[in-house]
Structure formats: C-alpha cells, structure tokens
C-alpha cells in the first residue's frame, strides 16, 4: 500500500472549487477513493449532495469520465456502463483496462436505490459501489433515511414535544449486502485514510461486485464545527458506533479495534442533532442507543470469530 | 425470405439481425416473448450481445442509458406498466441524447389491471422526447425496428417501435425477412461522438443544470425532434429503394377523393381497409389515414390532407382522461386550426383493455360520418365505441 506521501503526489481526480460545504467529508472520501488505484476509473453518481456540488453546468469538478442519470439507479446505470464496456471490449472496439465505481449517498443506496443495488450485486457486475453515508437525506435539507440513527433530529423525524427524534434504529446495509454473498464488503471512514484506501484497492482488485459503506460526517445535518469533521468520524469508530470491518469471501474481519471503547454519548454530545437526548426525560434513549451499539459490537466480534475458516 | 411469424418473433428476429452490443430488459406481458426469444439467441450464440436480465424495467432503461453512454448499440423491449416504470428514465435517455431502440408492445395501464391492447402506455410516453412509430402488422414492426437503429443514431434521439399487444404480438402472419448481411450493411456501424469511456478526453454526462442552462438544453432536444423528420424520411426512402417496402410518416388509403375518412394508428388500420374496400364497392367515398410516425408529429402534412376532406373521425385507442377526447384527436384538431377549410370531426375512443374492434363497429363509424355529411350536424363529438353504457 502506498504511503501518505506517495498518495499526496498523485493527481487529484476531483478538483477543488466544487461547492460542497466547508467541513464536508464527502469530497475527502472521494479523493481518497480515487487515489487508491492507478487504473482509469469511470464514476457514476446518483442524484445527491456529491452530484449537485460537483457538476453545476458548465463546470465540473471531475477530471475523469463521470455519469449521472437519476436518483434511485446508480447501480443499474453503472451496470449498463460496465456491460457496455464489456461488449465493446469483446468486439475489439476498446482495449484499455477501466474500472467502474458508483458513489451514492444513503438515500440513493439504503432507501430509494436499494432495489437497483441489490439487482446489480446479484447479477455479478464487475463494479464497486461506494455508499457515502451521512445518515440522512442531506441534499434535500436533512430528512431522515433508514441510515439515520435512533433519536436523531431530522426535518422529517423532528425532536418534538411528544416524539424525541427518529423512533427506530438504523438499517444495517453492509450486512444486507454481505448477505448477497458478493466477494467483498467493507465499512470504512475518511477519518482513517489508510483503512479506506486499502479497502478500495482491495475491492477494485476483485473480479465481481463489491461494496464499501463509508460514514461521512455531515457538518450541516449533524451540527458540528467544520474543522471537527475528521475527529467526529474517528469518534464514531472509537465508540464502536461505526465499526471498521470487511467481509472477504464470506469471512468477517475487524480492520480496526479501538484501544478503548468510548461511551457513545460522548460522540452524540458533539452533534446538534442529538442535543435533545441530553434532557433528563430522554435519558432512557441514550441508554437504549448504548445497548444497541454494545450488542452490535458483540455480534460483529462473534461473526468475525466464527466465520474464520468457514469459507 | 418468406416466413410465418408472430409480431414478437418478428421483433426478436430483427434484434437478432441487428445484433446490438447490449440488451437490458425485464419481461412483461405481452412483450415477454421478445426478451425470451432474444435470451435464447444469446444462449445459443446466434448473437454476441451482452444481455442483462435486470430486476425491473426502471433498471432496464437505466442500464440501457449506461450502456448507450459508453457508445454501445443498445436495445430493450417492454409494455404497459413496464413502460410506465421506465417513464422517468425515458426523459433522461432523450435528454442525454442517447439513441436507444425500444421494441414496445402496446398494452393498457392499470387500474383495473388488464393485459390486453390499447395505446395508453405508449401515449403516456408521448412527451418524453422519444420518436414513436406505430405498426400495422408484424412486417411493419420488423422493417421499422431495423430502420429505427439508423433513425435513432442519426438523430441522436431514442426511439420506440410499437405493435398492438396480442393482436400483432401474438398473431401469426406471413412476412418477408431481409438477409442477415443486408441488415448489417443497412444499419452500418455505430460511431458515437462522445462516450464516458474516453478516459483521455473525460466528459461529465448528466450534470446539473440550473435556470441558466436547462432551457437551452431542452431546446436542443426539441430541435433534435424537429430535425428527426428529415432523417426518418431519408431512412424510409433508402429502405424502400433497397428492400422494396415503402414507408411514410402516414399512409393514405383511398383518401384522394374521400368524402368521409378515419384516422387510426396500429393494427386497426388493416381492419379499416377491409371496410373501406366494401364501402368503395358500394360507391361510398371512404378513406383512411393511417398514422405511422406519431413522434415527431407530422403536423403540416396531416393537416394539408385532412383539410380537404369534408368529414373525419379520429380513432383513439386510449383516452387522455382530460374530459375532452383522446390524444390523437387533440393533436389533429390542433393541426387543422390554421386551415380555412376544415372537416367536420368526431372522436372515437375504442378498444380499451383489448375490447375487440370488428368490421361491424367500423361500419358504424362510417355510417355516423355519412349522417354527419348529410345532415351537417354533430350531436356528440366524443364518442365511445363498443362500450356498454
């Protein structure tokens, strides 16, 4: 794997001057992803923050081929791109080696795009699908998604007088995709650049569909100072709210184990969306969230332990 | 070569001869067979197309968009709810100027659910920026699908060629096939100007437009549709010269001296011709305008012809649910507005959900037209043919 110094010398494929918010971790994640390989890449984005902030006509921040068609179908669109490439290669009309990555948000991936993602994973296209999960529909103004954590305030799961934010826990999409028995699934975060670039490199080396779920802290939707974006992400990992792991050919592996598992409320406290949970009447919710995080962490460790050598 | 085939077989056969780079499709009655037959061609190595059996029609059109964006010759097939599920992506295909070819089998839309023919699905997509060709029989469907490849690629607009569900799709007909290599020569090789595979000259396809550019880009698509008329005419002409079967935007059947005439799309044209022949034998000057290319709408040409006919019935196999008639009716009425002489006109909504349209019903239409011609009076302008009410 390349060193940070080596990576810093590579040409940036996503230029500056895009219109993402200050402190947004999406462009950081994208730059890390695109740095992970020397093979030319075509990127497909569904409608979302990344698309609208990087492609306002007549400008583009992409120094590489890029396509967008609609919101719920990045996986289907990239399926077509990859298949078209395969067809043209077979007929001798193109000879270059090219890799294909779809990059969607949690709305376009966990929710409206879930069917198309499932279809693409099942059909075995040679693609990498990256979900940039900022835990709500940030592009339309912070509405809840199925990736929104329990208790979070969003504009469609507001913390009101009777309902204290989102009622349910988030969907475990990475596990859903792992259940498709694809060769490589992982969770990562741009706060740990080496973890993310390693995983992208691994995924792109695989022949077949792969998936990486990347937690991208959203300054606006989560409510934290822009300069804290990377730290907040690291805190999500250290509290085991967002564990870093990979599922390689059915084998679950932790790729990072915090030295000390921090209380999840420390992470929640740093964000405006959870502010109401710290009122005395909502204490039980904080407890519920901690219990859920502990339970998931336990389960993940067991999966890692038991899946070794099963494949 | 003379063969006997159903409309679906004819469409699939054309697809085999076209041998597209990519087909992405999802089965739906009555278009399922097209996909099945084509999957067999792929499985048997008769084509070297990459076939993607997607999980929905929405993904079918999305995958077609992706494939076409890399410069692959791309086709699909659908009907009814499937076309409705593609609706969002139809606009994106035309907006991105991707020459996708779709074999569409006309079928009603839910609810109530019904698998039989009417034109509600295709008419629902009429404003999506796709060229639309309606076919009278399997021969036309086969010929038009071959022409469609050229038309789409030259106009940089997607195109759908339609047959009437079950009536054409499942009905057997004798037809003429073109030799494989002649089809290959006729369609030539697709050489796209831009592709998202050009890593040395990267493009951003499908960017966001705000108020400062969206209108200009739409305007270009509008212009492409206008320009496609010339391309369609050229391809029609070339096809006719080469294979002896001539097609126009519409067919005039005994219209020259007609006093009464009907306008129809699709399979009903064949039945209408039988009735017109009958009437002609009785000395009644009846005629038919069979509209083949509905998008782009040949507004001037149609109006020119119909303006000199005293009495016309427009037959719609779908309703706009606008409380004022069917889609073909609205367009034809509008086309005639600028003419000083205009026919007396009535609109028939007929055949919804596969309700049969027989000789007797068409005779009654001409009977109504005769009465209007005689009395110069129209009591009811929008009429529903063959419905219990």
Summarize this structure briefly:
The complex is a heterodimer of chains A (311) and B (389). Chain A is of the alpha/beta class. Chain A contains 12 helices and 8 strands.
Structure write-up:
The complex is a heterodimer of chains A (311) and B (389). With 311 residues, chain A is α/β, with parallel strands linked by helices. Chain A has helices at 4-8, 26-35, 49-54, 74-90, 106-111, 114-123, 173-178, 193-205, 219-223, 229-238, 264-269, 283-307, and strands at residues 41-44, 66-67, 99-105, 128-133, 184-188, 210-215, 245-248, 251-254. Chain A has an eight-stranded mixed beta sheet, with helices on both faces. The longest helix of chain A is centred in the C-terminal third of the chain and has 25 residues, at 283-307. Chain A starts with a helix and ends with a helix. The model of chain A has no long low-confidence stretch (mean pLDDT 97). The radius of gyration of chain B is 21 Å and the shape is globular. In chain B, the strands form three sheets. Chain B has a seven-stranded mixed beta sheet with strand order 3-2-4-5-7-6-13, with helices on both faces. Chain B has a six-stranded mixed beta sheet with strand order 10-12-11-14-15-16, with helices on both faces. A two-stranded antiparallel ribbon of chain B has the order 1-8. The termini of chain B are far apart. Chain B has 389 residues and is α/β, with parallel strands linked by helices. In chain B, strand 14, helix 11 (327-336) and strand 15 (344-350) form a beta-alpha-beta unit. Chain B has twelve helices and 16 strands. Strand 2 of chain A pairs parallel with strand 9 (204-205) of chain B.
């Amino acid at each position: 794997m390349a060193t940070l110094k080596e990576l810093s010398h590579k040409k940036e494929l996503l230029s500056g001057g895009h219109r993402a918010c200050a402190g947004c971790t999406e462009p950081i994640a994208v730059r890390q992803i695109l740095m992970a390989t020397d093979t030319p890449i075509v990127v497909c984005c569904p409608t979302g923050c990344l698309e609208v902030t990087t492609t306002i006509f007549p400008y583009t921040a992409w120094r590489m081929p890029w396509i967008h068609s609609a919101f719920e179908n990045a996986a289907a669109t990239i399926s077509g791109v990859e298949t078209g490439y395969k067809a043209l290669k077979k007929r001798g009309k193109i000879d270059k080696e090219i890799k294909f990555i779809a990059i969607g948000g949690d709305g376009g991936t966990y929710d409206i795009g879930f069917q198309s993602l499932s279809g693409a994973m099942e059909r075995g296209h040679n693609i990498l699908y990256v979900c940039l999960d900022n835990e709500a529909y940030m592009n339309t103004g912070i509405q809840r998604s199925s990736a929104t954590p329990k208790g979070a305030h969003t504009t469609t799961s507001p913390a009101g007088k009777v309902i204290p934010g989102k009622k349910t826990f988030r969907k475990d999409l990475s596990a859903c995709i792992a259940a498709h028995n694809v060769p490589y699934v992982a969770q990562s975060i741009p706060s740990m650049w080496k973890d993310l670039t390693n995983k992208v490199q691994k995924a792109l080396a695989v022949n077949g569909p792969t998936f990486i779920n990347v937690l991208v802290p959203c300054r606006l939707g989560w409510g934290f100072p822009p300069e804290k974006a990377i730290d907040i992400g690291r805190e999500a990992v250290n509290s085991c709210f967002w564990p870093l792991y990979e599922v390689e050919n059915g084998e679950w592996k932790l790729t990072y184990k915090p030295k000390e598992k921090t209380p999840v409320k420390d992470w929640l406290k740093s964000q405006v969306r959870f502010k109401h949970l710290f009122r005395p009447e909502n204490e039980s919710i904080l407890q519920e969230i901690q219990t859920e995080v502990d339970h998931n962490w336990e389960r993940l460790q067991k999966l890692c332990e038991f899946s070794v050598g099963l494949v | 070569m003379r063969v006997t085939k159903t409309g679906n077989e004819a469409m699939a056969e054309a697809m085999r001869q076209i041998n597209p780079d990519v087909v992405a499709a999802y089965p739906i009655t009555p278009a399922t067979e097209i996909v099945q037959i084509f999957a067999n061609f792929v499985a048997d190595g008769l084509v070297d197309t990459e076939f993607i059996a997607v999980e929905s029609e929405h993904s079918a059109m999305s995958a077609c968009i992706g494939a076409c964006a890399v410069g692959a010759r791309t086709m699909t097939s659908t009907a009814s709810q499937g076309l409705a599920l593609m609706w969002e992506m139809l606009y994106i295909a035309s907006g991105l100027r991707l020459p996708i070819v779709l074999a569409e089998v006309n079928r009603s839309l839910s609810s109530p659910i019904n698998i039989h023919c009417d034109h509600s699905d295709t008419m629902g997509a009429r404003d999506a920026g796709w060229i639309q060709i309606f076919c009278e029989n399997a021969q036309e469907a086969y010929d038009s699908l071959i022409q469609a490849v050229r038309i789409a690629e030259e106009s940089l607009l997607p195109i759908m060629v339609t047959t009437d569900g079950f009536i054409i799709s499942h009905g057997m007909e004798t037809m003429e096939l073109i030799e494989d290599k002649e089809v290959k020569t006729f369609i030539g090789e697709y050489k796209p100007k831009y592709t998202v595979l050009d890593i040395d000259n990267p493009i951003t396809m499908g960017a966001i437009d705000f108020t400062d550019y969206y209108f200009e880009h739409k305007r270009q698509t509008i212009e492409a549709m206008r320009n496609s008329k010339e391309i369609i005419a050229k391809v029609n002409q070339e096809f006719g010269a080469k294979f002896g079967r001539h097609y126009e935007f519409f067919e005039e059947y005994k219209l020259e001296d007609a006093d009464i005439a009907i306008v129809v799309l699709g399979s009903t044209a064949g039945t209408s011709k039988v009735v017109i022949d009958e009437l002609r034998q009785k000395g009644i000057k009846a005629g038919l305008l069979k509209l083949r290319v509905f998008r782009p709408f040949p507004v001037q040409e149609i109006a020119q012809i119909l303006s000199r006919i005293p009495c016309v019935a427009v037959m719609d196999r779908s309703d706009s649910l606008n409380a004022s008639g069917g889609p073909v009716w609205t367009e034809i009425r509008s086309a005639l507005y600028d003419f000083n002489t205009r026919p007396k006109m009535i609109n028939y909504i007929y055949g919804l959900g596969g309700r049969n349209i027989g000789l007797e019903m068409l005779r009654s239409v001409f009977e109504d037209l005769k009465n209007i011609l005689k009395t110069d009076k129209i009591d009811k302008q929008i009429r529903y043919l063959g419905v219990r009410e």
